[in-house]
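ARCHIVE CARD
CATEGORY: sequence design from structure
SOURCE FIELD: tokenized fold
FIELD CONTENT:
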């Protein structure tokens, strides 16, 4: 839980109405959007003026989240959103712990603000930065949304968690836990979710909106990724990839590749999987890693692909070509102990 001195400090900051910016990481997922919007609704109930600012667009399959229409997109309106950030009296950063995760331009603005504007970090990734005056950083939590639940209760405000807040927080818990499959899912996670269901959330409908609401194009992209799947039994590893050309041919929209990496772990005796996505606009290959058991993909991503994350779920990047990146990946396996 957050340290008592940090809880006291946050209480003092929230004692009077404030203009508050709430920021997730670039390419926000269900946990990033659920946690920021859940906190947004809580702060509104407390009489503050919060605004959620995403570095870039969030996926369409999250656009049903309550008040998602109020979210500001930094990269779409840099001048006006920068003004909102500079006018903020308090900034929350959720589901990331180094400012570089917001992208170069937004990071530059936030770096300018750290000396004068108080930052509060709530996050569950490893190796947090030191830009925040109050930090709730704990890798034992499976999602930032679950941390927001405990953060609100730590402030003594648990009674304010209503159906709307619970709907947002449930979204991040269910997505970041792999629908409660991952090892970070605890008895407490289930007790929190049980409380949300008691508050009236429609967990069946939320699950359907998240996982059964795909466009035809998204299904075609998944089919191609599965066709491209390669298996290396000697390394207990699988991988797949999508080139920019393949993505373009199916009219790729933001979020269409979400969750594809998980299919690589669905085969018998596979412990490690990777998913390589070409992004020619940014000049990078985006990589997602997943593992089972004790194989630490966070360490692997940091060591080989300028990335990081969690023990069983991490990301990385490469500035090599797609083919060269995959060859580099294959070359690392001979020296990687995968149990």
């Amino acid at each position: 839980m957050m340290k008592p001195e940090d809880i006291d400090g946050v209480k003092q900051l929230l004692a009077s109405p404030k203009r508050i910016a709430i920021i997730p990481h670039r390419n926000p997922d269900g946990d990033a959007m659920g946690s920021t919007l859940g906190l947004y609704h809580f702060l509104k109930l407390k009489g503050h003026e919060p605004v959620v600012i995403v570095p870039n667009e969030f996926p369409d399959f999250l656009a049903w989240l309550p008040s998602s229409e109020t979210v500001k997109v930094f990269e779409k309106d840099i001048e006006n959103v920068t003004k909102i950030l500079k006018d903020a009296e308090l900034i929350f950063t959720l589901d990331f712990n180094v400012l570089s995760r917001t992208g170069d331009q937004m990071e530059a603005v936030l770096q300018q603000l750290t000396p004068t504007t108080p930052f509060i970090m709530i996050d569950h990734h490893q190796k947090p930065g030191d830009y925040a005056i109050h930090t709730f950083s704990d890798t034992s939590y499976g999602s930032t949304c679950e941390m927001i639940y405990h953060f609100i209760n730590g402030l003594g405000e648990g009674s304010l968690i209503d159906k709307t807040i619970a709907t947002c927080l449930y979204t991040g818990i269910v997505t970041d836990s792999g629908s409660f499959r991952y090892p970070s899912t605890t008895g407490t996670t289930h007790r929190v979710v049980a409380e949300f269901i008691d508050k009236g959330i429609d967990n069946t409908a939320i699950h359907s909106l998240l996982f059964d609401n795909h466009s035809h194009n998204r299904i075609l992209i998944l089919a191609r990724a599965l066709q491209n799947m390669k298996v290396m039994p000697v390394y207990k590893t699988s991988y797949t990839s999508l080139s920019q050309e393949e993505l373009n041919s199916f009219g790729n929209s933001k979020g269409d590749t979400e969750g594809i990496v998980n299919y690589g772990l669905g085969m018998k005796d596979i412990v490690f999987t990777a998913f390589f996505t070409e992004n020619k606009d940014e000049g990078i290959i985006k990589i997602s890693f997943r593992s089972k058991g004790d194989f630490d993909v966070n360490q692997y991503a940091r060591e080989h692909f300028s990335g990081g994350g969690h023990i069983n779920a991490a990301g990385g990047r490469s500035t090599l070509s797609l083919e060269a990146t995959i060859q580099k990946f294959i070359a690392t396996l001979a020296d990687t102990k995968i149990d």
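CARD ANNOTATION: The chain has two domains: 4-210, 219-333. The longest helix spans residues 30-45.
SHELF: design records, drawer C
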